[in-house]
Amino acid sequence: xxxxxxxxxxxxxxxxxxxxxxxxxxxxxxxxxxxxxxxxxxxxxxxxxxxxxxxxxxxxxxxxxxxxxxxxxxxxxxxxxxxxxxxxxxxxxxxxxxxxxxxxxxxxxxxxxxxxxxxxxxxxxxxxxxxxxxxxxxxxxxxxxxxxxxxxxxxxxxxxxxxxxxxxxxxxxxxxxxxxxxxxxxxxxxxxxxxxxxxxxxxxxxxxxxxxxxxxxxxxxxxxxxxxxxxxxxxxxxxxxxxxxxxxxxxxxxxxxxxxxxxxxxxxxxxxxxxxxxxxxxxxxxxxxxxxxxxxxxxxxxxxxxxxxxxxxxxxxxxxxxxxxxxxxxxxxxxxxxxxxxxxxxxxxxxxxxxxxxxxxxxxxxx
Amino acid sequence: xxxxxxxxxxxxxxxxxxxxxxxxxxxxxxxxxxxxxxxxxxxxxxxxxxxxxxxxxxxxxxxxxxxxxxxxxxxxxxxxxxxxxxxxxxxxxxxxxxxxxxxxxxxxxxxxxxxxxxxxxxxxxxxxxxxxxxxxxxxxxxxxxxxxxxxxxxxxxxxxxxxxxxxxxxxxxxxxxxxxxxxxxxxxxxxxxxxxxxxxxxxxxxxxxxxxxxxxxxxxxxxxxxxxxxxxxxxxxxxxxxxxxxxxxxxxxxxx
Lengths: 367, 256
Fold this sequence. Notes:
B: alpha/beta
């Protein structure tokens, strides 16, 4: 395998193909359209299914139908399209079907703009549709990681019969950097024991998400929650740097984590004991590791390209053990490392240990 | 000794479950015709049905093949996903008028335009049944429903949509027929239409749809007998019966 200069959206598409993608259904929207365009050529040449749907609503329902057979299926979109897909996402979750959705985030709310943003964090991790569920959410920070996590997304979707969302921002979708595509996975298409394929020689199977009796629906929901709890136990993923001696830990994901990394390096060069914690799974949030860091760190600074969404998960993990501050830019404005360094300095200053040993009160810091 | 001859029994395509439909409702007839057709064509074991939202949401409890329940109106998209990954299977949707003609109009038109090789069974009873009798896009002018209490006034509430005529215009649609379930003659024609639709699908010709005019005694506020008369007198003039399209493998070839 060789490293090539790859564009994020196309790299994800090719990674999905090599992970054994059987069918793709999608609809154009910036900044993810290259994903659809790439697969429009690639899937038919491999004899696999590709449909440009009439809407995101139709696309996700095609995914729902194809997923009933246990095949590897995917769609991709951006915030406004993900909003339209929420109906189907909820049905996929309710029926416990394996499916992968790529959300290449843009600025919102509303039509917003097509610049890189991280404004879909709540939308995706909190529920992604009506009802009561959470999809597994993976957030890469480099194109190589996006490629690797695409393969993982299909494995996790299949292992847990679960909706997996690859949460990418417009930067990662649009930029190019050197990366290596994985080898082709050989997969024999087979119908899993739960899947639909025609009832020849066995009793008919039904895939549905309707449970009219409250007790039956509660049992179903409890089972879904138990699965989520097992996933939360096993699948928390994160990475970090300079965490051993960090007084201040910056928490960031995706493109914001790359800016934060530069800022952390710059702060270190100036003698500040700063570390970086980067969640890779946003749901389940890597709260175990973060909670372990909380007693040692003096403060946490959450850096996001939104109004402060992941900060809620950080606060839940850290609790009262350390102050949690926020720095962010919105609307597709990308923060510069210098801004983050300033926020780091400010946070360090504001959270100095006072004479009597108590920490100073946490005050929100915004640009 | 008198020889017993069974002339009429439960098709293997129907389960033994008692249906939840109201007394006199023709859903039961449509289910039976569908089950008989799948059985007679020998495709029951490789058929996957897509159930809709509405009265027929539990169709999968009665028709004995694999089934998936779709979101409101989305059955043709769900069927598309199934057909594209399992092209050798027979895929059909079973949808009411609220599902297909209102929220799902886009999905059915585009599935027809793409020429998806699926079969749509469209139960048109001119009203929303499950939610308690609201006006549908197929309600004839003057029809009194819970959301058109003074009768459907076209100036204010629009005109009924003739879905089969719309679908028949799509090049990807190869077989479109509108039949009725209000008398034995029409029921036999409906069965024939279902046969033809599935035969086209088996041959891989393209999109097929059978619209079946049906009753809703409960929400129409009529006895079963009166409701069958209402189909004849009030629905058929708005939704004329017949075969709107039957072109076999005759999809236009794109040159160049």
